[in-house]
UniProtKB/TrEMBL annotation, chain A:
Signal peptide: none annotated. The active site is at residues 40, 83. Heterodimer of 2 subunits, IMMPL1 and IMMPL2. InterPro entries: LexA/Signal_pep-like_sf, Mito_IMP1_subunit, Pept_S26A_signal_pept_1, Peptidase_S26. It comes from Astyanax mexicanus. GO terms for biological process: protein processing involved in protein targeting to mitochondrion; signal peptide processing. This is Mitochondrial inner membrane protease subunit.
UniProtKB/TrEMBL annotation, chain B:
It holds the Pfam family Peptidase_S26. The active site is at 41, 78. GO terms for biological process: protein processing involved in protein targeting to mitochondrion; signal peptide processing. CDD domains: S26_SPase_I. Residues 145-173 are annotated as: Disordered. This is Mitochondrial inner membrane protease subunit 2. It is a single-pass membrane protein. It comes from Astyanax mexicanus (Blind cave fish). Heterodimer of 2 subunits, IMMPL1 and IMMPL2. InterPro entries: IMP2, LexA/Signal_pep-like_sf, Pept_S26A_signal_pept_1, Pept_S26A_signal_pept_1_CS, Peptidase_S26. Residues 163-173 have a biased composition (Acidic residues). Keywords: Hydrolase, Membrane, Mitochondrion, Mitochondrion inner membrane, Protease, Transmembrane, Transmembrane helix.
Length: 238, 173
């Protein structure tokens, strides 16, 4: 009796480890959902928007100018920032305010990128802390989740549609969720005939449920928690 | 009959594949990583004989290891000299004295003349750290645990946190 319980427990642990590793690989190498906070990317991404960021471009070194990326903050490795890439290595970027008479420029050094938020008046970005090393970039934001009547849809943030094409991106996300849903709820036996993946047992369903909830709950937050003070704020106080 | 056996083999292979690959990738990312040290920038602590007998180190992900700020595809291994908030005296950097900014580290190779480190590219962000070199595992006569220590002439002048805790990082390819 004890051996049976022990056997089942070990089997459960084994399945959890396997699915956990598959989930880790998916989040690390394919993509994840991110909750963006802060006003620095308005009007493209507003406060508390959920976006889907893909990791493939970053690992293949295919981040280009104009992409919106999620990067680790250079000053706090536990915080993430969501900004647009304005310049890649070798580019000349303008560092002065639009109101200045004399424009100053810098060149982006090798291995770095220049990030700026879309809401230029309310964003701390490379204009304050300088170019950011490429290796701090985590992923490229490609889809945004929006509520249309009663349904959540995802639409592409980039034009022209590149690499993560609209239908590929949306199809992949929905297929992944559908697959996990099938594992968890239907206990579908022998999908493709692979007993290791789906056995229909209770443990498998619960592991699948864990993964689905993990996938939904593991949203990263990106963005500043409070907006940066600008010159107009001082005028209002006075 | 042969077709059924073939199909069983394919099934066994793919199911094993779906177990082995994610588990291996997760272990390499999260737990431990083995890396070979190239170059002379960390002599004499690592690689004392140079290219003829390169050291292999075990990198423990519970602490750090670093991606180069100049080339994101390259990993470099150096010693951490100063943490955020410390004031240090630099060797050949554009500022003679420097306070390490928040969220950054100052790293240096042990072999000062032949080292591409913070004296060239300045303080590095903590987010670039990949893992900490904890043991030398090859060649067998060099099995040892790497002890964190700062050379006495490179200690920071003033530190805000506890006294110098340093780690070795990874290799220059």
């Amino acid at each position: 009796m004890v051996y049976r319980v022990l056997g089942r427990a070990l089997g459960f642990v084994g399945f959890t480890v396997q699915y956990g590793c598959i989930a880790h690989c998916a989040f690390e190498y394919i993509g994840e959902f991110v909750v963006c906070s802060g006003p620095s990317m308005e009007p493209t991404i507003t406060n508390h928007n959920v976006v889907f960021s893909e990791r493939i471009s970053r690992h293949l070194y295919r981040i280009e100018k104009g992409d919106i990326v999620i990067a680790k903050s250079p000053f706090n490795p536990r915080m993430n920032v969501c900004k647009r890439v304005i310049g890649i290595e070798g580019d000349k970027v303008c560092t002065s305010e639009p109101s200045d008479t004399f424009k100053t420029h810098t060149f982006v050094p090798r291995g770095h990128v220049w990030l700026e938020g879309d809401n230029l008046s309310n964003s701390t970005d490379s204009r304050s802390y300088g170019p950011v090393p490429y290796a701090l970039i985590r992923g490229r934001v490609c889809l945004k989740v929006r509520k249309v009547r009663k349904f959540y849809i995802m639409y592409n943030l980039h034009y022209p549609y590149r690499f993560c094409a609209y239908w590929w991106g949306v199809g992949f996300c929905y297929l992944l969720l559908l697959f996990l849903f099938a594992v968890a709820l239907t206990g579908f036996r022998r999908l493709w005939g692979f007993e290791m993946v789906l056995t229909g047992s209770l443990f498998d369903c619960s592991c699948g449920l864990l993964i689905v909830s993990g996938f939904c709950a593991r949203v990263r937050t990106a963005g500043e928690s409070k907006p940066a003070l600008t010159e107009t704020d001082y005028f209002i106080i006075n | 009959m042969a077709q059924k056996a073939g199909r069983r083999y394919v099934r066994a292979f793919v199911s094993g594949f779906f177990v082995a690959v994610p588990v291996t990738v997760t272990v390499l990312d999260r737990l431990a990583y083995v890396a070979r040290v190239d170059g002379a920038s960390m002599q004499p602590s690592l690689n004392p004989e140079g290219a003829s007998a390169p050291d292999v180190v075990l990198l423990n992900h519970f602490l750090q290891n670093i991606l180069s700020p100049k080339n994101p595809k390259q990993k470099i291994i150096k010693r951490v000299i100063a943490l955020e908030g410390d004031f240090i005296k630099t060797l050949g950097y554009k500022n003679r004295y420097l306070r390490v900014p928040d969220g950054h580290l100052w790293i240096e190779g042990d072999h000062h003349g032949h080292s591409f480190d913070s004296n060239t590219f300045g303080p590095v962000s903590l987010g670039l750290i990949h893992g900490k070199a904890s043991h030398i595992i090859w060649p067998p006569n060099r099995w040892q645990k790497i002890k964190p220590s700062v050379p006495p002439d490179r200690r920071p002048m003033l530190n805000w946190g506890e006294s110098t805790e340093d780690e070795d990082d990874d290799e220059e390819k």
